[in-house]
Records
---
Amino acid sequence: MFQRPQHLLSRAVASHRVLFIEEPIYQPMEAGLPRMQLRRTAQDVLVATPLLPQGLDEVRADAAQRDLLDALLDGPEGGKDIAIAWYYTPMALSFSGHLQPAVTVYDCMDELSAFRGASPGLRLLERRLMQRADLVFTGGRSLYEAKRGLHPSTHLFASGVDVHHFAPARNGTPEGGEPEDQAGLPHPRLGWFGVIDERMDLGLVGAVAERRPDWTVIMVGPVVKIDPASLPRAANIHWLGGKGHQDLPRYLANWDVGFMPFAINEATRYISPTKTPEYLAAGVPVVSTPVADVVRDYGEAGLAEIASTPDEVVSAAERLMARPRASWLPQADQRLAQISWDSLWARMAGLINQVSSRRSAAGSQTRAMTSSNAAPDV
Ligand SMILES: O=c1ccn([C@@H]2O[C@H](COP(=O)(O)OP(=O)(O)O[C@H]3O[C@@H]([C@H](O)CO)[C@H](O)[C@H]3O)[C@@H](O)[C@H]2O)c(=O)[nH]1
């Protein structure tokens, strides 16, 4: 999955060495555990995954991650000073709170406390992170409104888009051809890509497919935290699993409508789905349930149809399929041109530079960049 952290941190490598600490993986006890597993991404981000023995309690797991992190930073991949500690989850404070970076950034991309399986300690750690952060970035409008009162330097950075990555889908199937698992499925097609978890309205997916057995519903993405047995099954629903980001345009190129069947609940109250501008960049019109940020950022501008019930989704999709691209694509392009990941990163980097200039004037030095995350991080 190529998500917000990957987009931003792969741009950070132009000016920093980026070390990204992943969530730990627990394994049966064996010699050599705990240890840090390292890999370098194509974008030159060093990704470190703590491998821990199963059965560690929380305190020991935090201590083990702290030791592994310190050993990594003391070694050749570390650096004398840390320029930026970049957090995607407050939970990472429990093993990195002793670090003394020049600048601390909290890039809050979701209200994690509302997600299934969230740690009860998350809210307290978020308060601590807010106290130590120099900058708080928020991944969407609703999150910004929820967090801006908690930190004086909170900034709205809603999802960006790599137009160049998705635009080839507008003009026939990009190089590589239509993926085998999609080729041959009948049109019209409603497609989704993204994580499939408790945020999805599975009942809606099943009901739309049932209303229109002549349509095909294509679901791309990993099933996470929910029982795969709970997915609606029908001859016209195709659960294709997770795909590489590079392959997404080949799927989108042959969709008639981009579908966002989010459940409307606590877990989706603050989300700002990156897939909205990505569908549009591929020339695929969007129908979504009324997620607040989708309604405000896209629905009200006529760039997404908002529908709650199966009948509303079917009617909206029919309207979108009948609408010529030329009637909406120029307006979509205007919006997309304002939200490239490049421009978001440039603005973020500007804010970080302001803070670090102030710090270095006060005597701090910067060298390496580290970040820890629950999802990713530098
Ligand atoms: O098989 C796949 C499917 C998708 N992708 C890429 O992953 C991107 C993220 O998808 P997802 O995790 O479903 O997240 P989404 O964009 O809908 O929403 C989350 O992101 C934040 C946002 O970043 C804040 O700015 C939001 O609030 C979150 O809930 C997807 O866009 C695909 O490009 C893939 O690679 N492979």
---
Amino acid sequence: MRIAKVIVDVPANSINQTFDYLIPEKFLDILKVGMRVTVPFGPRKIMGFVVGKAEESTFKSLREIEQVLDVTPVLTEELLHLGEWVAKDTVSLYITALQAMLPQVLKAQYKKELLRNTDASLSQELEHLFAGRDVIAYEEFEGASVSYYQLQKAVQDGDLVVKYLVHSKITKKYVTMVQPAREGYLLEEALQDLSKNAMKQRELLGYFIENPQPIEKKLLLKKFQTTSSTIRTLIDKSLIETTQVEVYRDPHQQQFHKTTALPLTEEQEQAITPIKQNIANDEHDVFLVHGVTGSGKTELYLQAIQDVIMKGQEAIVLVPEIALTPQMVNRFKGRFGSKVAVMHSALSAGEKYDEWRRIHQKEVQVVVGARSAIFAPFENLGIIIIDEEHEATYKQEDQPRYHARDVAIQRGKTHHCPVVLGSATPTLESFARAQKGVYKLATLRKRTNDKEMPPVEIVDMRAELHAGNRSMFSRTLMDKMENCLSKGEQIVLLLNRRGYSTFVMCRDCGHVKECPHCDIALTYHKNFNHLKCHYCSYEEPMPTNCPECNSDLIRYFGTGTQRVEEALTKLLPEAGIIRMDVDTTRRKGSHETLLRKFANKEASILLGTQMIAKGLDFENVTLVGVLTADSMLHLPDFRSSEKTFQLLTQVSGRAGRHELTGEVIVQTYTPDHYSIELASEYDFEGFYKKEMATRKTFQYPPFFFLALITVSHTNKVTAVQTTNHIVQQLLQHVSNNTVVLGPSPSPVPRIKDRYRYQCMIKYKNEPQLRDMISSITEQFKEATQKGDLLITVDMQPHHLM
Ligand SMILES: Nc1ncnc2c1ncn2[C@@H]1O[C@H](COP(=O)(O)OP(=O)(O)OP(=O)(O)O)[C@@H](O)[C@H]1O
Ligand SMILES: [Zn+2]
Ligand SMILES: [Zn+2]
């Protein structure tokens, strides 16, 4: 077929269509659907994906494909279709959806090199091209008169390897291996003939006569204290040969203990049976496993995956980014060993690419990863698992704004395989679907070791104030901490910081320092004595006097982890504190290091933000303290109660998981709030009922779907007018029971000097909504292309901030 249908990489444009290009003769055999190409587009050359081929085109005078970037397709047919679906569902561009599926390295055009992979002769033209070198730039090949066929053939035969370079470092890694080129007796003959002076050569030959298997060149040189020239000489005599072998950078090289399946509890057995049936019968259902922390959900996933592997199929396991700790990864590696690839954002681009390629090359059967691992290029999926399904990180907050759960279900349908959602605190959406029978519900009420959940005590911080305690620790918490330390046990302290950072205020006039470019208070950073904007990175030194009234009583407020740490160090100087927040975990590997220290009991207190609430399992932790349970409750976000309930439940689950019994202290200024009360009783179903009633009253999910359109512009009037225009048009087309709200300022009304207004749509059934929104935004195409106007559409806003 002579015509390629190409999706081009021009995201600024609102182009969502394919373009026809002519396939030049030399690419006719090699070009496949799912490969990346470069094509001329206007005056430029750009990257594109081949999404189809055809015999004919309705267009005349087509331009030609310029280059083929891949030797094998990077996207399967299934992923191409899935991309189309994601684009439609999230009202975004097809190209953006396709790029979301690939590792960073493959998203851009990159430099290539050709690597010689054999010491045997290549074709004359290729030998000429390499001219004695092992590596040449790909451009040299393009500039030479060597045919593409020769390259293809050499690559297919394994004589040449195409190597991708992004920033020089992010590439495949190779090692040179040395091995005998002749059979043992021939080597022995050669050894006889060698001059007695050729000591090193003799030693090497002697070694290979004894050890015919390949050895890494570096090791060999070290072993015999010799240089490459010795090896070269023996290669020239055709006695030994070298090959380049690819090594994967394994970011999880630590030891893992091999584990085997545990006999399941009755509850686990009941939960897993229908999942196993799904697997056995190639059926698709969505299962919601609602199980308290420590009830053995992970063991259940492992055993379901075991079935999938036995069937020769593949598994995707999604876990929240911050739960991708070595503890979690080791459980999968411990059970399935090298069959597991791990994908999370702490990996370097090169490491991510390596893991992706292990999946692509079918070298693994299981991938454990964060959100984007849902696009793993497996072709024979047997199960998809989403652990902690309630986590907000499964929703991408950038184009394409997809939810991994929706993508999982879409893939599950295509592959006829089960999708398993697991959580101790499912989202209201999922639980409601399970109640209606859309999802199959399995409940695990007991911890596997039959331990009760630790008792939770709520402390009213207002009463503390009245009693004259102005510190951030209640008397109860102090007592319990001292007691705990005296017994040599450990403590986890959670500072729920979201929406409650350290801002600077004048005590005399009440002036709060705000970012000059955004309508938001600046945050105080103690290390540099600086104020910083979390939205635009604007910085300024901490003022010594109030810019409004010149008073010197300007101070920072709020409870940052640093302040808690300082206060704790004063109160409990002997304790030893490990602080975990964005500042202390920025460096790669620091997360692991801190946790290891705590596990080794190098400190008694682990103090941190949300990131410590998940999945951690330390046997010596007997006390969990939550410093301010309600800091999140008052955010303008319809999920704030739900998030509070989830967080409290998760963090409570960290105490007393083993022999020692644990307890939990929750400090709050709103002790009567239902999400705090019910979380302290571990009453999920009670919370569900109460919260559902609220959602119904205020017309929020799961009773209504939401869509959020945000308009931003440097000119406030334009922003308002555009939003208003969108609102008016929608009102003309939507059905009667759909609510269209706006224009109203966004919760942060100005970011980076751009004014932000929004339109919110609440609907129950609006099949045409996506098309409506597309055609409305299309009207502003010109204004958005000029770059001044920005319209973003979120078909499933997770939080409204
Ligand atoms: N059938 C079983 N018999 C004995 N021990 C089990 C069984 N299933 C799981 N366990 C053990 O119980 C502990 C808790 O199990 P697991 O971590 O799977 O629970 P979970 O529900 O995933 O917990 P969390 O929600 O806190 O992550 C683990 O130490 C696990 O090895
Ligand atoms: Zn002042
Ligand atoms: Zn700012």
